[in-house]
Amino acid sequence: MKKAKKWIWIAVAAVVVIGGVAAAVILSRNNREPVYVYGFADGIAGMTDYYDGGNESSGMVTTDRIQTAFLSETQKVLDILVTDGQQVKKGDVLFTYDTTLSDIALRQKELSVEQAKLDLETAKKELAVINSYVPISHHEVVQPEPTEPAEPVANLADFDLEGKDFLAYSGSGSTALTPRYCWLRSSAMVDENMMALLFADTQENVLFVRFQHTEGDKNDGAVTEEYGIKLMRLSIAEEDGSTSFVYRFSFFDLNAGSGNDAPIDDGIDWNSGYTAAEIAAMRAEKQAQIKDQKFQIKVAEAEFKIMQKEADSGQVVAEFDGTVVGLTDPETAVANNQPLLKVSGGGGFYVEGAVSELQLNSIRVGQKVSVMSWDTHETYDGTIVEIQHFPDESENGGSQNVSYYPYKVFIDESANLQDGYYVSMTLQGAEDQTSLYIQNPFVRTEGARSYVYVRGEDGRLEKRYIQTGANLWGSYTQVLGGLTADDYVAFPYGKTVKEGAPTQEGTPDNLYANY
Predict the structure, then answer these.
(1) pLDDT for position 441
(2) 444-454: per-residue pLDDT in tens?
(3) Of 39, 163, 186, 290, which has fewest CB within 10 angstroms of its CB?
(4) 50 near 437, Cβ under 8 Å?
């Protein structure tokens, strides 16, 4: 049971000497119960390791009156039909080639695209599972009176355990009073596959299971250990209309006397088995993987299209009226990974990237961008020429909380870039976005302002207004100012939470036991 809080109230008469009032106030403050405060390092109040590389992006190269002709290792030049500085018309043949590119190589590249898409769908499903996780929570322990099971229990000795890791042999599992009895081999673990099999013969989505170990793992051996686990099955609708399942669990008291969810005496609901901070870290990692996987798909698709074009044609023609520049010999071009030639019409290259809303206010038209070619690994300077004011939902990496805004970069014609290839971009003069995020329950609002209760320099509680930013997953709020990772904050509810109250560093047990 919760312990009643002990308060010492000091009544002060309306007319007293100043010294008497001061003494009364000091006595009142010194006798307050301490308010527990929590830090960021242990993940209780929030987290500091959510990383969003908002200054980095990638995109596909497009051209404007500039044509770059690279040679692949499978192309053999047969005849070059132009000279350096020559004026050409749209449709003029620049050079002809033969290719050793085979149908098998094309099919392999096509399969790699398909596999990358399958990997993306797998990552999305894994993110959906992570999003379904409920973190470990603490609760007040109430020990029920022991009660005998309401259902008869079959004899395990009547069942064959040969070759089995577990066996559900008795009971419905519908309540904590009527659990499903399940023998478990001492070397076996309760995992998702086992949970799925336990749910296989029922339409229910909750099962109370009494797992038992026996001496020597024998069916007639004495029970050496047993514990109760409440299994929960949740369905997730897939994009193709099918349904998949994820599983959670918590412990229940085998001696439960009433109700269907009596807590075990450790005061913990294990749920997913992960803390809120661990779940947040898994989300961030999986979202980064999804974002990277989307990029790898785009790169593979671009490479496949270029390979198809090579296989379908034995000549390269001018795409517009212009001038041949930078013509070199085929051997030098391949050895140095440089273009065989360019046709210039006075244009350049464009790449569209995307910036996180966390850094949208830090970029501007005219800002310099460092551009690196994934093909040649050469780096060029680009300039932002356009920033869109509407987010691109396809660039959120699986997150519904952080939006990305497209911007366009121009690179002049001196760069050795090629239409359809991908590059990475880094905003110059911008810093990586590593932010402080606080758990939402620690934040209160006053009108349009947000505030927290923080341990001050004198060790006492103070009310502090903070500047907030993006919301992550409905669980965390980005802190833009007013709070640092070194601060300790209090859960902002309860009679003792007042400015000037003494503070004491708390643990998760303190947090959940007192509020």
Answers:
(1) 84
(2) 988 889 999 99
(3) 163
(4) yes
